[in-house]
Amino acid sequence: MQPKVDSDDEDAGSSPSVPRPEVDSENFNIENSEAEKYQPSGPTERITKKVSASPGGAGDMRLTQDESQGAGVSSTNGKKLLALEDLDLKQVIKDEVTAALKRNADEVDEEVQKRIEEEMRSRLAQFGFQPNQIEAVVHPEKAKTLQPGMAPNSPPWLTHQPTYVKVHKDHLPVYTLIYYDIPYEIDRSDSDYMIILRELEPRETEILFEHTRRLRSRGASYLAVKERDRTPKPDYAQVRRRPERTQSPNTNRRATNHYKTNHVEVSPRSRTTTLSRDQSMTTDKVAAARRKQKSSKTSSKRGTSPLPTIAEPNVNLRVPPFLVWPNTLGEVEDDASKDRSNARPQSSGEHDSALTELTLSEIEKYMRKNRQDDADLPVSFHHPFHTSYKSGKAFVEIPEKSIKDLEPVQDAKSFNNPQWNQGVLDVRNELAFVETIREGTGRASKSCTTPLPKISSTASLKQKSVTRIPSRRAIQWQMSRLLIEMDLLISSTQQLIDQFVPKHYPHPLLRKCWGTLYEISKVSLLPPNLSVVPTQCLRCIILTLLTRTR
Amino acid sequence: MCKENANHEKQEESMASPFIYLIKDVPDNEYMQMHELEKLAIPIEICSICSKSTRYPDIDDAFQHLQQFHSQKRVVLSLEDRQRLGHWLVSTASVELGRRNAGMISLIEAVHWRTKKLLYKAMEIRSGVANEEKEKPSHYLLPSALVKAAEKTFKFIFTSLHAVRFLKDQISTAAPNLKTSPVELRDNIALAEYYAIAAKNALSKAQDELLLMAYTGSSDGASIVQYISIPPETTALYAIGCLVARPIVEELRIQELYRNHLSSLVSTGFNI
To answer: Is the interface score ipTM higher than 0.90?
Structure first.
């Protein structure tokens, strides 16, 4: 810009011509600002003011004090006028400078912002952030408008910082943490505190404290019994005993007097029931007999030990189920009953059946009682089982079903349902494989060589899809595992019941067992579009699938 | 529960938008065996990135991590590699479902394991009392511990239903973002096992008593179930008592039914 240099003093006619340098605006700006800054107050100082020559501006001039003095403007009024003009000029200059700065800044800002953003993106990418996370960092307002599923759950600055709880050992014992498999470490600054290395929800915290409370409540009675039994006595029966908190003091005393207890701290997983018996003198014989039996049998382990090696049930065994065993009936029969039995002889089968009925009725009656010993249950008070247990309905309100509901349905039409092959949850391959493994480990590995069926066309299509996970079939695997486990559970439970009572015995208790299995099996039944009749046995489903796949 | 899984699969199949993936380990070794997978050079559990459940909006990034870090291979990913490594990739929506399934499986497994233990124990006892003809000698009587074991066994079966129901309800009603707590799963397994352990102890005690009978040849000292013979009238009364105590309809007993019937008769009589 070419500044126009002018002088107002020309009107006075006495001003010599002054060299007029060309000033560029930027230099001017700086000089002007500095001139303003260091403007002296003394009248004798020579100050050169360079006025920006803005087009059409009012400040096209160059003014020196000498010139003004030379022009004879020396009066105070003149000075004031000059000062006012000077102020106006300053204001004008300021406005101009601000406007220019703003224009420049806007232009520069956009470029700088772009450069910064690019640099930031490249650096975040180098650090391993994903594009959606970077977008959330750079433009937080855009993160909200991303499609569902695309928004990063953990943008870097929003990454959830875990809060670990520090707790005193007196408030939460180590055993509770071990029981629930919760990682922890001892606080280095104070060994009485532990830091739980996992975030806990309030519900979980309640469960932990309740477990502690249960432990302590058992521990208190345990200690009390231990204190009473400190007197040295001959070593009688070594019987594990669970402290019974609900007993009256008299009962406790009686129990303590009669039974010797061996205090073994029992884990909640391996709680033992009260083993009360009157034959303290005979336990040596029991121990001797047990030793004798152990010497003959090598595998008689307990607890979490592996299962005994009874692979196949002895089918030729003619020992009746437990509850059909005879008892002392007949030894206490009076004459009148003898006469009645002589008059109408009763067959042994009817007799046993009547006794079994009586025993089962007593068991059922016992289950209907209200309970107050719910504190020993290994679940928190929030669990619905607590309520039903206390009200006596826990073992009563069980659906009853016939064992036939668990048996294979003979209708073959149901199994020809083509929906088995069309469903999204096609578990045939997994079922076949799990069954093969089971047979291979349990019995002969005859079917290990059986080729597995090809994956269905639906699954093949899935593999080709780009957006989907190509090969993982964990859900199908889990469902097949569930089906197999349920099948095994049903057969094992039927066998177990058969050890006590004949499994076809008509009694509500048994019907409730089948009802329980039926209800549990619902978790692994396929949905309506895949499953057939819901009353079908899982075994049928599995067998049918295996038949089809092989 | 199976329904939830099927719905989930349907939903994933119908979704057009790409998923966000996580790297998770395969369910178990049998799964690897079935799909003929080899173990990764660096397991998933020791990888700090995977343990933090790092999300991958781009599946290629996940494959790259699996290939370069876990498989320790620098070659270009082939289609076979992608199919093989895809077994370790899971969508975010499937993670929680898989965890819930695993919880239910572990609960059913625990119940089955306890059932098997009890079964083998009972079979051991029955086999133990058999003579050469595989029959029970007459001197073996029914010890009360066996009745107690039967009661605990029934309780164990019924309680397992409560535990399964709890988890099932939680799965069906829980919001998708609500995680099933492992602490609660642990509690439910403990609940299911509670009476099984009691039944096992009762069976052990019964075994002791039966051994004692075998050793001494008599039932002296063992607690045997005793039934007292009573006249038929008492038996009939007892049976009626049991019948009356049992609910016929929901919360409606015979006494109430009879009372209702009487009152209806009375009202009918008044009307006449």
So the answer is: no
